[in-house]
């Protein structure tokens, strides 16, 4: 059965939701699913903006056929070729053999790499080119590395719709809803949107900044991303989040405590530290067990707040592996500009604190590590309370 939504006059959402996939990109958990958005414009000519993942291709094809209602498909605009959007290109070509594909040189190169039969049907565009489909005229804007090098966004100058590719996307299936004003985004979606942005596009902050600069010069009325809700109101709310995330600026003053504990002793110290912070009025505190929390959530939470406590046991004379993995991911995603407090533990040859500090200072950018490290020998004991109090004071002082 087809399942489509009208976005605005002559423009329809023809995407599909995915609930069966456990891991997006086979790495990030998506317990609330994900949507693959595609949009179909009915003008003098018919234009499809991007396709969908192979897993939902059948639903997508039904949707396209329904909205076309007997018309043929004239154009397919590809803003982003990653297979979660490009996988169904070949199926579209098979069903609509006269379709012309509009995209850029890099995207066409990749389509050939993926062995799509595009020859004889391509129309190459570059930054600033325009194209009219009847009443609607669109302009193409390059957005390299948001999130692959071939990415572009397409702006419809007639109705103010921005087809924004991965930008302004979110994890989470739409399940009947489509627009941001049909959901409680700040309550139900922001954590997944942040986890999507920070883990998928987080590395490319400067490129996102460059896109935001270009976008600020155009009168955008509706944002149609390739995942998650379509934005038709309160655009500033989400643009502000993207601005902060891509500048690696925290959204909130707060503390995330990530602990790596083998037998509960480091966890106990982390809990005592959290309690002291809260007692002194720092209530925006969250704790995560590095062994049990997917690293994509740790990354997302680290983007959210200003301060991070890393509490790690020493393991094989090194950093506990899940904590090390988290640090490696922070580096890979270019995370920077945070204040870090360190708690280390070791029953002998306690090394994790020094190793974490070296990693933060030598391998990452603009990380401020507080001097007052708390060192535990096996467990938090009364004699360590003064050191913990000093670390708590230091965290609070640095938040001022
Ligand atoms: Fe949703 Fe970069 O693909």
Topology (SSEs and partners):
Blueprint: E1 5-8, E2 11-13, E3 16-18, E4 23-24, E5 28-29, E6 34-36, E7 39-42, E8 46-49, H1 57-68, E9 75-77, H2 83-86, H3 89-95, E10 100-103, H4 105-113, E11 122-124, E12 130-132, E13 137-142, E14 152-156, E15 161-163, H5 185-201, H6 205-215, E16 222-224, H7 235-246, E17 252-260, H8 265-279, E18 285-289, H9 295-304, E19 305-315, E20 318-319, H10 321-332, E21 338-345, H11 352-363, E22 367-369, E23 374-376, H12 385-398
Bound molecules: MU-OXO-diiron.
MU-OXO-diiron (FEO) binds next to helix 2.
Explain what this protein looks like in three dimensions.
With 400 residues, this protein is an alpha/beta fold. The protein folds into two domains: 242 residues, Ribonuclease Z/Hydroxyacylglutathione hydrolase-like (Metallo-beta-lactamase, Chain A), CATH 3.60.15; 147 residues, Rossmann fold, CATH 3.40.50. Helices cover 34% and strands 24% of the residues. The strands form five sheets. Strands 1-2-7-8-9-10-11 form a seven-stranded mixed β-sheet. Strand 8, helix 1 and strand 9 form a beta-alpha-beta unit. Helix 5 crosses helix 9 and helix 6 packs antiparallel against helix 7. It is elongated, with a radius of gyration of 24 Å. The termini are far apart. 44% of the residues are buried. The mean pLDDT is 97. Bound molecules: MU-OXO-diiron. MU-OXO-diiron binds next to helix 2.
């Amino acid at each position: 059965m087809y399942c489509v939504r009208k976005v605005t006059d002559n423009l329809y959402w023809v995407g599909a939701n995915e609930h069966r996939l456990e891991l997006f990109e086979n790495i990030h958990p998506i317990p609330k699913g994900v949507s693959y958005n595609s949009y179909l414009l009915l003008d003098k000519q018919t234009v499809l903006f991007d396709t969908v993942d192979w897993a939902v291709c059948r639903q997508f094809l039904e949707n396209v056929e329904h909205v076309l209602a007997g018309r043929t498909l004239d154009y397919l605009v590809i803003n982003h070729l990653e297979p979660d959007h490009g996988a169904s290109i070949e199926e579209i070509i098979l069903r609509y053999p006269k379709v012309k594909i509009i995209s850029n040189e890099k995207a066409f190169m990749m389509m050939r790499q993926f062995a799509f039969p595009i020859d004889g049907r391509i129309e190459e565009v570059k930054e600033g080119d325009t194209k009219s489909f009847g009443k609607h005229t669109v302009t193409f804007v390059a957005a390299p590395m948001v999130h692959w090098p071939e990415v572009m966004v397409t702006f419809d100058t007639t109705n103010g719709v921005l087809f924004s590719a991965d930008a302004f996307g979110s994890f989470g299936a739409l399940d009947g809803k489509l627009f941001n004003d049909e959901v409680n985004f700040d309550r139900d979606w922001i954590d997944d949107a942040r986890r999507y942005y920070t883990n998928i596009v987080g590395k490319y902050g400067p490129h996102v900044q460059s896109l935001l600069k270009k976008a600020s010069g155009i009168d955008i009325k509706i944002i149609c991303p390739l995942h998650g809700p379509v934005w038709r109101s309160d655009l500033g709310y989400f643009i502000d989040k993207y601005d902060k995330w891509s500048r690696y600026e925290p959204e909130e003053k707060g503390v995330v405590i990530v602990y790596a504990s083998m037998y509960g002793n480091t966890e106990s110290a982390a809990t005592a530290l959290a309690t002291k912070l809260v007692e002194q009025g720092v209530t925006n505190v969250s704790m995560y067990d590095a062994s049990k929390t997917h690293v994509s959530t740790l990354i997302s939470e680290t983007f959210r707040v200003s301060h991070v406590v890393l509490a790690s046991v020493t393991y094989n004379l090194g950093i506990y592996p899940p904590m090390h993995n988290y640090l490696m991911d922070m580096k890979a995603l270019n995370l920077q500009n945070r204040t870090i407090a360190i708690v280390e533990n070791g029953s002998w040859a306690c090394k994790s604190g020094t190793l974490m500090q070296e990693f933060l200072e030598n391998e990452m950018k603009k990380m401020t590590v507080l001097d007052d490290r708390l060192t535990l020998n096996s467990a938090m004991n009364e004699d360590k309370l003064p050191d913990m109090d000093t670390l708590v004071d230091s965290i609070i002082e640095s938040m001022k």
